[in-house]
Specification:
Elements lengths: L8 H13 L4 H11 L5 H14 L2 E4 L6 E4 L3 H16 L4 H9 L6 H16 L1
Length: 126
């Protein structure tokens, strides 16, 4: 997968399952996806994962009767690329503007603010 390639929403859903549960069959991924959202056809999941393999996002182990897929891309790399694009498009490339928006958000709890303070303190000590 090229560094600038960004997975679609449905491709990210597949990657999230594989990152969480490890190498899996199409049936397993399909069942997990159907637990999370509206029911999709098995053949749609199969085709999506085949396309993702062609794009270089997935590896496929064909040594057994059932093909087992695994992510060919690192979770942190993909999420970092997505975050970078998000910051560029929504906050003109400014991490501080993003942080201010996060800190001013109703979803940011006191516990999360404390974690952020601890992370910033660790960065200051480096």
């Amino acid at each position: 997968m090229k560094a600038e390639t960004v997975p679609t929403k449905t491709e990210m859903d597949v990657l999230q399952v594989l990152w969480q549960y490890g190498p899996s069959t199409v049936r397993f991924v399909h069942d997990k996806l159907n637990e999370q959202k509206e029911i999709v056809q098995y053949t749609s999941t199969l085709k999506l994962m085949q396309v993702m393999k062609e794009k270089g996002m997935l590896n496929r182990d064909e040594t057994n009767m059932k093909h087992v897929y695994s992510p060919a891309v690192a979770e942190q790399t993909v999420k970092g690329n997505l975050l970078g694009r998000f910051v560029d498009s929504m906050y003109n490339g400014s991490p501080s503007d993003l942080m201010m928006a996060l800190l001013d958000n109703d979803k940011t709890s006191a516990a999360e603010l404390q974690k952020i303070k601890e992370m910033l303190n660790k960065l200051d000590k480096k």
